[in-house]
Structure formats: C-alpha cells, structure tokens
User: Which sequence fits this backbone?
C-alpha cells in the first residue's frame, strides 16, 4: 500500500467507536499495514483544549454556532497537523467521529443550517473525503445503557431525549444510498450492527475492510 486511507468510525453514543478504533488499528498493524487511531474532538494539543471546552463546560455556556465552529477548529487542526501527514506516509488512520457527527449533532440535533455547516467543514478539511465510514448501528436505549454503565456523563450525553432522538434518526439516514449520493463530502458509508459483544463487532468491521479492499486485506488472512 503506497498511500494511506482515512477510515472513520461513526455512530451514536455507546455504539463502541472508541473501543473498536484501537482494536482495528492493532489488527491492521499486525497485518503489516501501519495504522493509527485518532478521535474527534481532540488529537492535537489545541484540539485537546477545545475538547475540554466542548465537553466540560456547563450546559448552555457554549452557543450553538460557537459549538459547531469549535468542532471545526479541532478538526482543521487534526487534519492539517496529523491526518494529512500520516496519509502521505501511507498510514491508515482510524478516526473516531468526523463530519457525519457534525451533521448528526449540530445540524439534525441543534438545527443549524446544513449549507453553512457544510461550508465551514469544507474550510476545515480542505476537500479531504474519508475512504470509508463504518457506521456502527445500535438501538438508542442499548447505546445509552452502555454509556450509563460507564458512569461519567459529559454535557452532550446529558442533552434531552428529543435531541438524542433527532441525532439517532440522522445517523440511521447516513447509510442510505440517496443520502450518500447527495453528500459526497462524506464518502461511502457502510453500516455495521454493533449490538453484539466487542469481538463480534470487531469481526464484522474486519469483514467490511476485507470486502472493500480484498487486494490489501483479505490476502493477509490466508497467509
Ligand atoms: N460531537 C459533536 O457534537 N459534533 C462533532 O462534530 C463531533 C463530536 C466530532 C464526543 O464525545 C462528543 O462530541 C459526542 C458527540 C460530539 N458526544 N456525545 N454525546 P466522546 O468522544 O467523549 O464520546 P463518544 O464519541 O460519544 O463516545 P462514547 O459515548 O464513549 O461512545 P462510543 O465511543 O461509541 O462507545 P465506547 O466508548 O466504545 O463504549 C461505551 C461503553 O460501552 C464503554 O463502557 C465500553 O466498554 C462499552 N462497550 C463498547 N462496546 C461494547 C460492546 N460491543 N458490548 C458491550 N459493551 C460495549
């Protein structure tokens, strides 16, 4: 493999993105494909400061437009300083959340205008399109139950039920072929059922990668 790939993991809270991203990176590294796992917001010193503002600030203190632009600022820094250089070196980047999260939370959830958010994202990523997004799907109650078992609740996780329902419906729509056709900036999206245990979800993700790039990944399994 001479150039890297940007593979995004998306889905609602508790779907297992943060659990799966390092597992997939490890599987790729063990198969001889240099890979790294990153997350949004964060992943750079400035992005980590933005993450603290976004997730630790009391409800209502960050306005909706400011919130969207802070996500974009973290993303711009991550793309410029880490993701593009890594892709140039041939690294596969497993990214926990990207622009689809902005569509789900800021556009569908908060109600910000799609065209303006899309333009801001274009400035942030400079035309970078994921090679693949794996959308982890899980019933909202099951995902929230996982998060509740974990204990800590950040500001967004405490947002009201209707907000979470709008976010869930948005994530469900992203795997739809027509939605993808009209949102080429998000690249191809493949849904994976994330309701099973950690190993089952990991195997399902690996299968998607093997099917998508058999020349790169399926061969490794036969060796
Ligand atoms: N956000 C936004 O609004 N706009 C944007 O543009 C972007 C983000 C990029 C980031 O929070 C917040 O930013 C997020 C959206 C918003 N907020 N909300 N709400 P984060 O990074 O702190 O958290 P998250 O991305 O939402 O992660 P999460 O809630 O932790 O979900 P997850 O990563 O999909 O799940 P997990 O951490 O891997 O697992 C959750 C728990 O379930 C944990 O205890 C695991 O051990 C357990 N788990 C994981 N997989 C399984 C399976 N298969 N079975 C059983 N238990 C499991």
Assistant:
């Amino acid at each position: 493999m001479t150039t890297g790939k940007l593979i995004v993991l998306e889905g609602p809270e508790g779907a297992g993105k943060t659990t799966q991203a390092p597992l997939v990176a490890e599987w790729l590294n063990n198969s001889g494909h240099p890979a790294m796992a990153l997350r949004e917001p964060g992943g750079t010193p400035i992005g980590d400061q933005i993450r603290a503002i976004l997730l630790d600030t009391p409800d209502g203190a960050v306005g909706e437009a400011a919130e969207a632009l802070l996500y974009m600022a973290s993303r711009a820094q991550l793309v410029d300083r880490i993701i593009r250089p890594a892709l140039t070196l041939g690294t596969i980047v497993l990214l926990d959340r990207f622009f689809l999260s902005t569509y789900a939370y800021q556009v569908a959830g908060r109600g910000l205008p799609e065209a303006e958010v899309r333009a801001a994202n274009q400035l942030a990523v400079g035309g970078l399109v994921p090679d693949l997004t794996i959308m982890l799907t899980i019933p909202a109650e099951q995902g929230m139950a996982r998060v509740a078992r974990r204990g800590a609740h950040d500001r967004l996780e405490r947002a009201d039920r209707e907000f979470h329902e709008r976010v869930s419906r948005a994530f469900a729509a992203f795997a739809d072929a027509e939605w993808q056709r009209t949102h080429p900036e998000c690249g191809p999206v493949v849904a994976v059922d994330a309701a099973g245990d950690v190993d089952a979800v990991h195997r399902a993700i690996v299968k998607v990668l093997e099917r998508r790039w058999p020349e790169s990944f399926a061969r490794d399994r036969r060796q």
Remarks:
- Residues 11, 13-19, 39-41, 55, 71, 97, 101-102, 105-106, 146-147, 150, 154, 156-157, 197-198, 201 surround Z5A (CB under 6 Å).
- Residues 64-88 form the longest helix (25 residues).
- The two ends are 17 Å apart (CA to CA).
